[in-house]
From TrEMBL, chain A:
Pfam families: DUF6754
Domain of life (superkingdom): Bacteria
Keyword annotations from UniProtKB, A to Z: Membrane, Transmembrane, Transmembrane helix
Annotated TM spans: 112-130, 334-355
Protein name: DUF6754 domain-containing protein
DUF6754 domain location: 103-353
TrEMBL record, chain B:
Residues that span the membrane, as ranges: 17-36, 263-281
Name of the protein described by the UniProt record: Uncharacterized protein
Keywords: Membrane, Transmembrane, Transmembrane helix
The organism's place on the tree of life at top rank: Bacteria
């Protein structure tokens, strides 16, 4: 028995400690506990000593072979010792490991491919912006939904009924909402030229404050600040179905002539669009929510699918700088498709290259 | 009024009547359940037959990784699979990676006790919730009793009779992850890829589309997707209960809901057909 | 002066903070993480202020509507419900068994479920109206929808090969187009973000 215990001590090394990433907060401890001993362990503790002398005990799951210690300080060093217990009795105590410092790096090498792709994309964008600035005509294919914006606003003007514009059900941190707000500016300017009322019920408080300023500024830009009615851009509620019920009720009571659904939507999308369809309104939707696109396609007159929502601002304004970025987007997509097709073909011949991108 | 005029008028019917017909079509099967026979689809059949042909005394892990929001679709599946295992003498080991799943899983096992007279720690084991996600999945591959020192009810796992022959995935015939999110993928990545244990998914209908690539790659042996799969499995288990002359009223939650669902969908198909007939006839007239 | 505060300063701020946060994403150093944590705190503080403005807007909107006899009853209910919940929450607390939670669970949740259930009816009227054989694409849409709807009913299992066809539609064309849209959206998001950071897109600040 004593020989067995001595032999065990001979074969068990102190834990190995290394820094798994560059966040400066983590250390991974590798514990080489033999399986024969592991089955007896009921409690496994790691004793952690900091370079400033502070001692802590960490209780970890007994079956773990590695453990990552979080929330450390990259300015200090740490070392670890394994303490294994079986029913309260200490059965194993390792030597202290070497001191290790959580590494704090200034660049995450794992994100290098992403960085390269981002730089390539930015360079392409700058190239096309320069082309657009040099007044070279850039062709954009017609997008039915965007061509119909004028028609939709005109209809509301003729019928003397308001336009309802919805920015989606996500906050300002979602790019789809920002794209929706960009389109709101265009739509407001065009509607303002015909003195057509535009109603913007908002779901998110921050989006409400921004939408309010956008509408106000849009009217001011076209020289009609008097058209701005603060009660037309308002916060409805931040309850999903409460918002859907409110907007649906508003559509039915005011009999809006035109509805715009731009942004990100969830399950309430069909409630909004079908109610609008039942009132006979012309509806234009634009969303990057893949799950809700079928509902909009079926119930709306025009739908902007995915990236068409992001292209809308450039399309409506026809500003050279913005159209240049659309061309850049298209080229980047083309390059991506070529790479995917090539890599797929190569994989048919068992040549598997991912370039660190996929 | 001619037949043509009838169809043209019908194709322009006010939506109020459509809603009324749908309402009646959904309420009647919920109040007076027709209990249509549910034939098994291929994916469900794969999972069912796998369990059905396991030798008596095999072990299956049933991980209740779902919450109350998806319970109407997924919970009937869990209950049906638990009963199926116990009826075939297979020992289900219940567990969950999400806190909310524990209560739902206990309900399923309690129902099995009531209907089949199943005995805890002999005919089934419920380990409960363990935090850690992928770490737990990996840990089960080394030592199940090491990950779960006690079961959900506080009994030491080393003392549970049914768990005595079980150490890790090598002793487990199948793992089924019941979830409303992408947790089954984590099971496929860690449990199947590293340890080779067979995995199946039981998911909501909406998320099922995302898991087909894993079935095609062989990482899942099959999939129970949505209300339809729940109804099919439930029906098959109820047939076994009937064969064994078990008197307790079988669970028909999923079957009832699927019957209403089917009638609703058939009504939609009918409306589409009528709408198109009327549309064609009105175009011809022009 | 107005131009400086309403346009130039916001654009400059967005540019500087946009570049900082882009660099932050690639830098794992704890200093970078502190910048991220601080920016999250700031955005939470801004959201809280926005809530104050939103509530003022909500109350103002409904108070004005009290004068209109068509909308008055609904606006009255909205204002009274809002006031009641605020008072109940402040006085009785929002803990698990509080009156606030009971009202939420017994009124809000069923109301949400009721509104959600409208989808069943709206789906049928939308399908009825939309699935007409108008052209090639509409016909393909209709046939696909027909197969998938029928295949997911109980009777669909009795039609030979129906399940395989439905599975193929969901696993191949459906998933492929979904992934294509997601790739396009990803590029659109990157492009829009760069445009906003570089100040090319200015509509959010008034054009």
């Amino acid at each position: 028995m004593i020989l067995r215990v001595m032999l065990l001590f001979l074969f068990i090394s102190p834990p190995k400690v290394f820094s798994p990433d560059g966040t400066g907060k983590k250390l991974t401890i590798v514990m080489n506990i033999p399986d024969t001993l592991r089955t007896q362990i009921t409690t496994l503790n790691l004793l952690r000593e900091c370079s400033d002398g502070k001692l802590d005990t960490l209780n970890i799951l007994p079956f773990l072979k590695t453990y990552t210690d979080n929330e450390l300080d990259y300015r200090k060093e740490y070392r670890y010792k394994i303490l294994a217990y079986s029913n309260g009795n200490l059965i194993y105590e390792s030597e202290w490991s070497e001191y290790a410092r959580p590494t704090a790096k200034w660049f995450d090498k794992g994100k290098l491919p992403l960085f390269i792709v981002m730089m390539v994309f930015t360079i392409i964008m700058i190239f096309y912006i320069a082309q657009a600035r040099a007044n070279k005509p850039l062709y954009l294919r017609p997008i039915a939904g965007l061509e119909a914006v004028n028609e939709a606003i005109g209809r509301a003007t003729e019928m003397g009924r308001p336009i309802i514009y919805i920015n989606g059900l996500t906050g300002i941190s979602d790019i789809a909402t920002i794209a929706a707000l960009n389109i709101l500016s265009h739509v407001t300017k065009r509607a303002g030229q015909f003195e057509t009322r535009i109603v913007v019920p908002c779901y998110d408080p921050v989006v409400y404050t921004i939408a309010r300023e956008i509408v106000k500024e849009a009217y001011t830009t076209i020289g009609r600040p008097d058209l701005f009615n603060p009660d037309d851009v308002y916060f409805a509620t931040d309850s999903q179905f409460g918002y859907a019920a409110h907007v649906a009720a508003r559509m039915v009571r005011e009999q809006s002539a035109t509805n715009f659904f731009m942004g990100y939507y969830f399950a309430e999308s069909l409630i909004l669009s079908e109610t609008g369809a039942s009132t006979g309104a012309i509806q234009v939707a634009g969303t990057d929510s893949v799950a809700q696109l079928p509902f909009f396609v079926v119930t709306c007159d025009y739908t902007l699918i995915g990236e068409e929502l992001y292209a809308a601002s450039a399309y409506l304004s026809r500003e050279p700088l913005l159209t240049g970025t659309i061309k850049a987007q298209d080229l980047a997509k083309l390059l991506l498709v070529i790479i995917m097709v090539l890599l797929s073909l190569l994989s048919l011949f068992n040549v598997n290259i991912t370039l660190g991108l996929f | 009024m001619s037949v043509r005029d009838f169809f043209i008028k019908l194709s322009k019917i006010d939506r109020k009547y459509i809603y009324l017909i749908i309402l009646i079509g959904l309420i009647i099967p919920l109040v007076f359940p027709p209990n249509f026979p549910q034939k098994m689809s291929p994916q469900v059949k794969r999972v069912f037959e796998f369990i059905d042909t396991l030798p008596k005394g095999s072990y299956v892990i049933l991980s209740a990784d779902y919450d109350p929001s998806v319970a109407p679709e997924v919970h009937p599946m869990y209950k049906a699979v638990v009963k199926h295992c116990i009826l075939r003498g297979i020992i289900p080991i219940g567990m969950t990676l999400g806190v909310q799943g524990a209560g739902l899983a206990v309900e399923a096992f309690t129902e099995a006790e009531r209907v089949l007279g199943a005995r805890r720690d002999t005919d089934y084991v419920f380990l409960g919730y363990q935090a850690g996600g992928a770490v737990v999945i990996l840990g089960l591959g080394e030592d199940i009793k090491g990950v779960y020192k006690t079961d959900y009810f506080g009994t030491k796992t080393t003392e549970i009779y049914a768990l005595k022959p079980v150490k890790n995935y090598k002793d487990i015939a199948l793992v089924i992850s019941f979830s409303g999110s992408s947790i089954p993928v984590t099971w496929a990545v860690y449990a199947y890829t590293k340890y080779g244990v067979k995995v199946a998914a039981a998911v909501t209908g909406v998320s099922a589309g995302d898991f087909y690539p894993y079935i095609q790659a062989g990482q899942f042996i099959g999939m129970l997707a949505g209300m339809k799969a729940a109804a099919e499995y439930e029906y098959a288990v109820n047939q076994i209960l009937k064969e064994r002359n078990i008197r307790e009223k079988p669970s028909t939650d999923a079957i009832r809901m699927m019957d209403a669902n089917s009638i609703g969908q058939l009504l939609i198909i009918l409306f589409i057909i009528i709408g198109n007939i009327g549309y064609f006839l009105s175009r011809r007239r022009k | 002066m107005r131009h400086l505060f309403e346009k130039q300063i916001p654009l400059a701020l967005v540019f500087i903070i946009g570049i900082i946060m882009t660099i932050q994403y690639f830098v794992p150093h704890p200093t970078s993480q502190n910048v991220y944590d601080t920016s999250l705190m700031w955005s939470r503080a801004i959201s809280s202020m926005a809530y104050v403005m939103a509530i003022i807007s909500f109350l103002r909107f409904h108070t004005k509507r009290l004068k209109n006899k068509n909308y008055a009853p609904y606006s009255l209910v909205a204002i009274l419900s809002f006031t009641a919940m605020v008072l109940i929450g402040f006085i009785g607390g929002t803990a698990k068994d509080s009156l606030f939670q009971k009202i939420y669970e017994n009124m809000m949740v069923p109301l949400q479920a009721t509104t959600f259930s409208l989808l069943a009816f709206y789906m049928s009227s939308a399908a009825y109206r939309a699935f007409r054989i108008r052209g090639v694409e509409a016909t393909v849409l209709m046939i696909t929808a027909f197969i998938v709807i029928f295949g997911t009913t109980t009777i669909g299992n009795y039609v030979p090969k129906m399940n395989e066809i439905v599975e193929w539609i969901m696993a191949v064309p459906n998933l492929a187009s979904k992934r294509g849209i997601i790739i396009g959206v990803g590029l659109g998001v990157v492009a829009t973000s760069i445009k906003i950071i570089l100040g090319i897109e200015r509509n959010w600040v008034g054009g």
